[in-house]
Amino acid sequence: MISIALKMLFGDPVKLAGLVLGIAFSTLLMTQQGGFFISLISRASNIVGEAKGVDVWVIDPQTETAEGPKPMRDVELFRVRGVDGVADASPLVQSTATLRTAERRSIAATFLGVDDARLLGINPQFVIGTPEDLRRPDAIAIDRLGFSKLWPGEPLGPGKVIEVNDRRAVVVAITDALPGFSAPVIVYTRISQALAYTPGGRNRLSYILVRLAPGADAGAAVARISEQTGLKALTSAQLQRMTIGYVLANTGIAPSFGVVIALGAIVGILVSGLTFTLFVSDNLKQFAVLKAVGVSNLRLLGMVATQALVVAFIGYAIGLFIATSFFDGVNKPLSDLKGFWLPWQVAALSAGAVLAIVLIASLVSIRRVLSLDPATVFRG
Amino acid sequence: MTAVIAKGVVKSFGVGDTRTLALRGADLEARAGEMTFLVGPSGCGKTTLISILAAMLSPDDGEVSVFGESPFRLRRSQLTRFRMRTVGFVFQQFNLLPALDAAENAAVPLIVQGVSTGKALKKASDLLDRLGLSGSAYKLPGQLSGGQQQRVAIARALIHEPRLVVCDEPTASLDAASGRAVMELLRDVAVSPERAAIVVTHDDRVYSFADRIATMADGRVVATTTTIASRDKETG
Ligand SMILES: Nc1ncnc2c1ncn2[C@@H]1O[C@H](COP(=O)(O)OP(=O)(O)O)[C@@H](O)[C@H]1O
Ligand SMILES: [Mg+2]
Q1: B44 pocket-lining for ligand 1 (C-beta < 6 Å)
Q2: Does the C-beta of B18 come closer than 6 Å to ligand 1?
Q3: What is the DSSP string of B112-176?
Q4: At how many degrees (to 10) do helices A2-10 and B102-112 cross?
Q5: How does pLDDT run across A318-374, given as a tens digit for each residue?
C-alpha cells in the first residue's frame, strides 16, 4: 500500500514539485532567518565566549550586557582576590573608540584591555603574532576582518601605525576574533593603553576575570564573591545568556525577524497545505476505488500520511541544504557575516514546524478521504 | 444455486424536498454460474441496487444476502473485509489508478489483501496475458485504449477470485466493437460455477450475452426473463 501511495505521489510531478518547493521555501526561510537571527544576537556575547580560561566574570551589579559594562573601582580587584576559592583575578577594561589610518580610513572598534602582566581574557586564534607581542610599546592586536576594512586589499601583516583619539597605536598582531554586535572590530591591548585611548581616570574596570582554585565549586564561589564584594559574579554561560536577553529586550531585532520567520511558516502552510489538499482531492476518485476494493480507513490514513511525510522530508532536505550552503558561504574570515552559523536547534525547530505544516495539511485533506462514500466510484 | 438475494430493498437519498426514493422495494435473485443483466431506463435505480449488492451502500430497508451472508449485519470493519474478499468491480469509467501500470492496477486487490507484491504482480501479468494484454503489462492506463483499459479493470475485478462480480455499464464508454469484445471476455472469464456476475447495462446490442435479464423501472425490478444463452446452456 505504501508503494501505491508513493506511486500516486510521484505520478503527479507538477503537484509534487509544488508541494516540495513550498516546504523547501518555508524551511529555507525559517532556518536561514532563524540562524541569521541567533548568529546576530550571539555576537553581543562573543567577547565572553572567546575569553576561554575564565571561570567567573565579576561585574558591577548595574551591568546588563557584556557589551556595555558599568565601571568598577580598581580596589574591587583586590577584594575579589581575597575571596576563598579564587586562585587568581585579573582586570579587563572594555571601551569603544575609533581607529584612524594614515590614509584617513576610520572604523569604530571594541577595545579590550587586558591585565599587563597576565594577559588573561584574550583567547581568539592569533593569525599573526602572539599575545606576548602586546607587551611592546603602543601595541594593539586587531582582528583580520577589521584589518581588511582599514587596509583593503593589503596583505595581513604587522607594523601598521594607526591613531586612536590622537594617540599612536601599532598593529603588532592579527587575530581571528569573532565580531561584536555593536562594534564588529575587536582590538586587544594592555589595560593601561585601553584606558589611555579613552578619556577618563582610573577606576574603570569593566570585568574582573576569575580563575578558581583547582577543585573549587563554581556555584559556591559565585555565591561567595557576590556576598563578600557586593558585586555580581557570573559564569561565562550566565553572562552570555544575560547579554543575549538584553539584546532581545532592548532592540527591535526579535520582532522583525519573528515576522519573517512567521511569514515563512505561514507561506509554507498555505502553499503546501493548499497544494496537498488539492492533490488529495484530485485523487479522491482513486481513494474511493481503493476504498471500494476494501482498503480500510486506517490504511488510507497511512497512505496519506506517507505521502505527506515524504513530501515534508524532501522539501525540508532541500531547504536545509540551501540554508546550510548559505551559512557555509558567508562564514568566511573576511566576511561581514563571519561566525554566522545554523544552530542545530533552529534546524530542529524548523523540522518540527514542517512536520506540523504537513500534519495540518494531511488532517484537513484526510477528512474528505475518510468521509468518502465508496459508492461514488459508480458515479460518473 | 442462488447466490444473491435482494428482498424489498428500499433506498432514498437526501432529505426534505430534495429526497429521492431511488429504490422502492426492489427484489432480485442472481445465480452462481450465471450472468445476470440489470436493465432499465436511466435513473430507475440500477446503480443504486448493485452498489447495495456490492456492500458499498447500505439499504434503508429490505434484506440482502450474498452467498448466505448478510453483509449489512456486519460491523463496519468486517464489511470492508467482506467487500475485499467477496466482490470484484468493473466500472463504466474504468477507474484505474493512473500512476500504476496495467499489472500493478490489476494486482491492487491482492496487494490490499496482503499478498506479496511479487506474487501479486506475477498473477496479474498471467491474467492480463489470458485477457489478451500480453504486451501491455508495463503500460500506464494513459497509454492504453479504452477497450484495453476496461480489460485491465476486468483483470482487477477477477484477480482475487471473488464470488460476486458487479459491472456498472462496462461497455458504455466503448465503441461497439470494443464493447462487444469486452462482453465476450466477461462472458468467458467472469462466469464460473461458483461465481455470480451482475452486469448493469442499457446497451441492447449486448443483451444476447445474458443468462437472465432483470428489468427495472422506477425503483423496482418489474420483470425477470431467462434468455437464449441460458437455455442453450441448459440443453447443451
Ligand atoms: N448519491 C445520490 N444522491 C442523491 N440522489 C441520488 C444519488 N444516487 C442516485 N440518486 C438518485 O437515485 C435515482 C436512481 O439513480 P441510479 O441508481 O444511479 O439510477 P441508474 O443507475 O439506473 O441510472 C436517481 O433519481 C438519482 O438521481
Ligand atoms: Mg447508473
Answers
A1: yes
A2: no
A3: HTT--HHHHHHHHHHHHHHTT-GGGTT--GGGS-HHHHHHHHHHHHHTT--SEEEEESTTTTS-H
A4: 150
A5: 999 999 999 999 888 888 888 899 999 999 999 998 998 888 888 888 888 888 877
For A86-109, the pLDDT digits (tens) are 988 999 999 888 999 988 899 999
Any idea what DSSP says for residue B72?
Answer: G
C-alpha B54 – ligand 2 centre gap (Å): 14
A356, A268 contact by CB (below 8 A): no
Give the pLDDT band (50/70/90) at residue B86.
very high
CB-ligand 1 contact for B41 (6 Å cutoff): no
CA angle B174, B208, B30 (to 5 degrees): 95
Residue A208, all three cell numbers: 574582573
Residue ranges per domain, chain B? 2-227
Closest ligand 1 atom to residue B40 Cα is 22
- Rounded to the nearest 10 degrees, the angle between the axes of helix A284-292 and helix A297-330 is 140
Distance from the Cα of residue A336 to its chain's centroid = 14
The Cα B195–Cα A294 span in angstroms is 19
| Residue B111 to residue A378, Cβ atoms within 8 A | no
Residue B112: all three cell numbers together:
490490499
- Interface residues on B facing A, Cβ-Cβ cutoff 8 A: 47, 50-51, 54, 56-57, 77, 80-81, 83-85, 89, 91-93, 95, 97-100, 104, 108-109, 111-113, 117, 156, 168
Q: Which three cell numbers stand for residue B90?
A: 468493473
How far is C-alpha A150 from the chain's CA centre?
26
Distance CA A226, CA A210 (A): 13
CATH superfamily entry for domain B2-227? P-loop containing nucleotide triphosphate hydrolases (3.40.50.300)
DSSP tag of A69: P
Calculate the dihedral angle through the C-alpha atoms of B191, B193, B196, B198, rounding to the nearest 10 degrees. Answer: 30
Decide if pLDDT at A189 tops 90: yes
pLDDT value for A277: 85
Q: Give the three cell numbers for residue A301.
A: 490514513
Beta bridge partners of B226: B212
Number of H helices, E strands in chain B: 7, 9
Q: How far is the CA of B198 from the centre of ligand 2 (A)?
A: 13
Give the residue from A277, A297, A272 showing the smallest Cα distance to A287. A297
- Angstrom distance (rounded) from CA A55 to CA A177: 20
A117 class by beta-carbon count within 10 Å (0-12 exposed, 13-18 middle, 19+ buried): exposed
Q: Which is nearest to B170 in space by CA: B193, B189, B195, B147?
A: B147
CA angle A324, A310, A11 (to 5 degrees): 120
pTM: 0.80
Give the residue among B174, B198, B194, B173 at the shortest CA–CA distance from B186.
B198
- List alpha helices for A64-119, DSSP H: 75-81
Burial of A353 by CB count in 10 Å (0-12 exposed, 13-18 middle, 19+ buried)? buried
**Counting Cβ atoms within 10 Å, is residue A36 exposed (0-12), middle (13-18) or buried (19+)?**
buried
